[in-house]
Amino acid sequence: MTNPITLTDSNFQGEIASGLTLVDFWAPWCGPCRIIAPVIEELAGQYEGRVKVGKVNVDENPATQGQFRVMSIPTLILFKDGQPIESIVGAQPKRAFERLLDKHAGAVINLPEEPIITKEEPAITKPVTLTDSNFTDEVSSGLTLVDFWAPWCGPCRIIAPVIEELAGQYQGRVKIGKVNVDENPATQGQFRVMSIPTLILFKDGQPVETMVGAQPKRAFETLLDKYAGAAPAASTGNAVSAD
Fold this sequence. Notes:
Layout: E1 5-7, H1 12-15, E2 20-26, H2 31-46, E3 51-57, H3 62-67, E4 75-80, E5 83-89, H4 94-105, E6 128-130, H5 135-138, E7 143-149, H6 154-169, E8 175-180, H7 185-190, E9 198-203, E10 206-212, H8 217-228
Parallel strand pairs: 1-3, 2-3, 6-8, 7-8
Antiparallel strand pairs: 2-4, 4-5, 7-9, 9-10
């Protein structure tokens, strides 16, 4: 697997001097930076030979950060032959980065694949759509994790696939719901949601814990397992020993 290159104040100019280079300006303490880190690693392998992918730790390389006036992280800048040509600020879905890179590097033409025989999959549990009118009833019993979000919110879109996975993963133990704050201001105001994404865990209608901002999936699992318990492991049968 091709990993992103570590860029520093000393090697930066040499590394980006030729061809296309996507540079991720990040820091270890930055939550959104950690959220997109796996995506950046995937892009390094996906675009190997067409786009070099590198990372600059802004805490350790202030000169490079200052040179390109990086005021917010994550910031991703695409360079061509040493010159910046486009930038993306903030955590974005992987497809946003792919569109940028395909625009300048060209998309890979995929050969037709052999047909795949698939088996029927079980129905996927989706998050419940919560509104000002149904909210109280939906969270009134058991555990309910509520994602306060909006369509224009980049970090909300980043964690959306994770929220959908949790709905299936915790089916029967935790209900997962989503509140569009633009369409449901009363519920947003009732729980004083000032920043999104905000996720609130309710137990029998009462909020018990809150998480603000995009987080790794494991953080949500830790919260839910704390209240719902970890899923029991599947039985593998008992070994029989001979005397």
